[in-house]
Amino acid sequence: MTCVSRAVPAATHRLFDHGGEVGDLMERFDWSRTSIGTPDTWPLSLRTALRIVLTSRYAMFLWWGRELIYLYNDAYIPTLGARHPAALGQPGGEVWGEIWEVVAPRVEKVLLEGQATFDEDLLLILERNGYPEETYFTFSYSPVPGDDGGIGGVFCAQTEETRKVIGQRQLALLHDLSTMTADARTAGDVCAAAARALAGDARDLPFAALYLPESGGRFRLAETIGIARGHAACPEILDAASAGAWPLAEWLDSGDPMLEVNDLAQRVPDRPCGAWDCPPSRGVVLLLADQAGQGAAGLLVAGLSPFRQFDPGYRHFIALVGGQIAAALATAEACEAERRRTQALADIDRAKTAFFSNVSHEFRTPLTLMMGPLEEVLGQADLGADLRELMTVTHRNALRLLKLVNSLLDFSRIEAGRVQAAYEPLDLATLTVDLASSFRSACEKAGLTLTVHCPTLSEPVHVDRDMWEKIVLNLLSNAFKFTLEGGIDVSLDAVGQEARLMVRDTGTGISEPELPRLFERFHRVAGARGRTHEGTGIGLALVQDLVRLHGGRIEVESRVGQGTTFTVMLPFGTAHLPADRIHDAGRLASTAIHASPFVEEALRWLPDRNTAGLRAKDSDGDRPRLLLADDNADMRDYVCRLLAGDYRIEAVADGAAALTAMRRAVPDIVLSDVMMPDLDGFGLLQAIRNNPCLRDVPVVLLSARAGEEARVEGLEAGADDYLIKPFTARDLRARLRSNLDLARQRRLAATAADRANRAKSDLLANVSHELRTPLNAIIGFSDAILSNIFGETCTTRCHDYIKDIHASGTHLLGLINEILDISAIEAGKLTLHEEQVDLSILLETCLRLIRSSAEQGGIVLASTVSLLPPLRADERRLKEIILNLLSNSVKFTSPGGRVTLSAQADASAGVLITVTDTGIGMDAEGLAKALQPFGQVDNPLQRKCQGTGLGLPLTKGLVELHGGTLMIDSRLGSGTTIAVHLPATRLAVVPG
């Protein structure tokens, strides 16, 4: 291009007005050296078209004349790239030689036929920036008529769509990756799905391969995309020793997630081209991070487009591709782990089922050998009353054990698919009435009503008799267990083509969140109130399984405090039943035990029949009092019989009854089961330890939960001992005796310490009272002299001495008052004089009194007091509490420090007062001493201990007399926060 400075006619000058950078270039350009001549010779049609181009902000150009001389505007410069400004005035074919094969046919159509062309998102490989570049354009070539009536040139308006096309393509790939890998459940499936997705974008990724990790830091080829297995660019194994296409040695240890290989052409001469006509010269290896971000879930290796720079956008796209694949691999790994876990659980479940089946069968043999002799002994007429009672208890518990064993056996058979039911047409109403009526006596003894309404159905129902028996009896037993008042209603009727059994109760009910889990095996409703906590959690699960075996369904409705209704629906007919099980006589051994064990067990949940008269009496001599809490009546009977000769025993059925009994008469020792209704053993233990009058009573827990963890849990909860069922009589007696002996020793030691403490308190009180008399005289006379009451004057020096005497006496009187208050609190003789107190005013008064001493010590005193309710309290003592806290904080805070008082009403309608300082603080040992009367804190941050050690203990005692609590949080060198909470019960009742 040649630019010369020469005079331009005025009309020509206006031709390039407002043409921007290109207009200025055109104005200076030597057009005489082109085939279109100088601007003053240009035809009007060219001038008009050029004005449109130059003044437009849309990318446009003109090709004019037979050589298609280039004329363009500023908006077209980015399309030319490095070819601007050299392209100005040059023939179009020379400017775009690399794409002229594509462009020429379109230009000829315009010039020869006078027809416009249009292309949308046309791919053109341009070399506008020194390298071949993938670009996309939407443009139209239109004919521009010359002044002579022919076609003078070609007009083009264009839009570069490169970013849009590439962006849409990449988004489509990422979408395909997401959807295609969504259902993959193994790493191999993920790689296969990802390969299918990547194959759809051979322009961004001409070829690729996926590797999965092996042991020893190796990666094995999983899938290839656009390249054959065995190719040099995708070896079967990649590791740190690999060379060839992908040098991993240093990169694997670098922590960089991406390795760029810029000399791929030298490393692998023969490379796939993908969608292009030339192979990539660069490639990448991307680390696919595992779920924890600690290691590699795999590698992605890929060739890069030969027609794009590896700029940040391209790099980000590759990272997104890797991220999608890594996420899918993580999901697959999670699914695989869950599958392995599920498989392991299934294996355990099968083993458990086999175990239940085997152990249930093993139990039945010794149980049979136990029950036969027991029934034979009980059949003897000459059996003594005591022995008969013992044998009856043994037989009853053997039946209960058989019931549990049979439930486990049924459960294991259902799990193993080995249930062999025999469905026969039965009069279901008559059978249900008989089963339900067996609970009538138990209901009457419990004070419950039992209503049975089972009219004869229009047709028989095919059921397995034993299974139906278990369905009805389990539902009745469950209703009886959780119905403490009201009644139970059993009904059977026909609804359409189904028989409907409903068992309703007015029991304690089940909360809505628990309902979905009610039929889960071994699930027990947490905190349910019932007659007992005994049970395995099998009953309702077994009922559901048995109902399903009949082709039926079971539903439950319940509301807490209102009751529960179980509804069982069984279809009429036999179409829903296996044909080979109808009227089938060949069956496994029956596990039916009829109603007796269910009813007997229910009766044992009722209040004591045999232990009611065993309440301890004062006339029973010097034997220790033992309180026994167990919801199993037979266990209560057994322990009472076992220990009746050594203890005065009171037996109760739950923790709440035990607490009531303890408040009536404190026992010497408590023996409690862990699992009980209303209040369990741990709840009872906590209540005992939280009660000052009961906390020293030794507690021995009984539990069927074996194992060291259960024992540790019991001891950590505060139990003195923990005994596992079954236990021997000798072990029980020895444990109780040793814990009683330890308790006696503790009480003797506590009594001696109490006597010594009371003696100390009495001495302090007496001495303090004696000291007050001379002190009153000293303070009174010194005050009189200072006030000149006697009309006598003294020298200045004498006056100062008397001031010191008065101050020291006042200080000493304060110490004596503290000692008297501590003694009174310890003796329980300090009385509060309560009145209505405006706490906000009181706090402000205390701040005012302490402010001068804070300012003298260079300490900032701040306060944050919210709107507080009125309070009933001893105003003098409350003031003493707050002043003690503030003065203590000021005392131990260095100059420049800060003491903050805050007070607010809390959510429970109480008041929370806190004093926070930035002082020297205390460690754990110092904190423990600070709350003990006369305890001096040896703080390494101060030279010596200060004070009497009475301030905080006295403050704590006064707070507790107000029904409140005092808590301290302190760190050595980091300050202290003391919080006082006064409960809502101390708040004044203000008339409305």
List the helices and strands and how they pair.
Layout: H1 10-15, H2 20-28, H3 44-54, E1 60-64, E2 69-72, H4 77-80, H5 92-95, H6 100-113, E3 117-126, E4 133-145, E5 151-160, H7 162-181, H8 187-198, E6 208-213, E7 219-225, E8 237-238, H9 249-252, E9 258-261, H10 264-267, E10 283-289, E11 296-303, H11 312-378, H12 385-416, E12 424-426, H13 428-437, H14 440-445, E13 449-453, E14 461-463, H15 465-482, E15 487-495, E16 498-505, H16 539-549, E17 553-559, E18 563-571, H17 596-604, E19 625-629, H18 633-643, E20 648-652, H19 655-664, E21 669-673, H20 681-690, E22 699-703, H21 708-716, E23 721-724, H22 729-786, H23 796-826, E24 835-837, H24 839-856, E25 860-865, E26 871-873, H25 875-891, E27 898-905, E28 911-917, H26 924-930, H27 951-961, E29 965-971, E30 975-982
Parallel strand pairs: 13-15, 19-20, 19-21, 21-22, 22-23, 25-27
Antiparallel strand pairs: 1-2, 1-5, 3-4, 4-5, 6-7, 6-11, 7-8, 9-10, 10-11, 12-14, 15-16, 16-18, 17-18, 24-26, 27-28, 28-30, 29-30
Helix pairs in contact: 7-8, 7-11, 8-11, 11-12, 12-17, 13-15, 15-16, 19-20, 22-23, 23-27, 24-25, 25-27
